[in-house]
Amino acid sequence: MTTTVHAPPDLEKSTDDRRVVRKRLGPGKRIPFAFWIGPALFLAVWAAGSATGVISPAILTAPWDVAIAFQDQWVNHDLLGNILSSLQRAVIGLALGVITGAVLAVLSGLSRIGESLIDGPIQIKRSVPTLALIPLFIAWFGIGQEMKIVTIALITLVPIYVHTHNGLRSIDGKYAELAETIGIGRGEFIRHIVLPGALPGFLLGMRFAVTSSMLGLVVVEQYNAVAGIGHMITLAEQYGQTDVIVVGLVIYGVFGYCADSAVRLTGRKVLAWRRTLED
Hints:
Layout: H1 9-25, H2 37-52, H3 63-76, H4 79-110, H5 112-127, H6 134-141, H7 145-169, H8 173-182, H9 186-220, H10 229-238, H11 242-270
């Protein structure tokens, strides 16, 4: 005789609720080229509004006029040189900010002494907008390339530090107890447990950092730049070339969106072992 064991009603209901939530909030099937659906929709609305006259050219240049201006800047002006100059500033500043922020976060997150020395000044810096420090940076470094790179580096340093530090502090203390129990050295503990545990926070900080680097780039290139997208926009503003201004803004936007997409894709590859709703 076979006896059927039924789960308690409350347990069955709880299981069913979890299944419903998972079905509603679960990852589902990945949509191909999902990153580009939003921008494509925005471009379609922009084109439709310009074609129907809803968006006046005095308010926003039509996308086809922007494409013509882009071609003119590429053929008759040094658009490629301006793009490369802006990319150089952004990449160097971002790299310095990311490296410095990550190192400070590790020192602060793994040591009480390091936290007491580092975390306070970083939080003070966090409350002071970096862009407000530009006049001081000009007095220190002049209005050349150094001032622009330092500004971008400081803007990107804060999100990297904050999110990496939070990632380190959120690691379960049981792992440290387990490492002591089985005799894992400090170096192996940091390499195999601490750094992988802080990686999600670091990647989240990277998403904020790349966006912040674009914000800093837009601002610093307004200060005596002789090359770069900001320099092109400044000249276009003087001559009333709205279409060229929009070209520069679109390039800034493409920079930031591509960088953010690259970080997201990297996170999916590196953190494949973590099942999240984003996946």
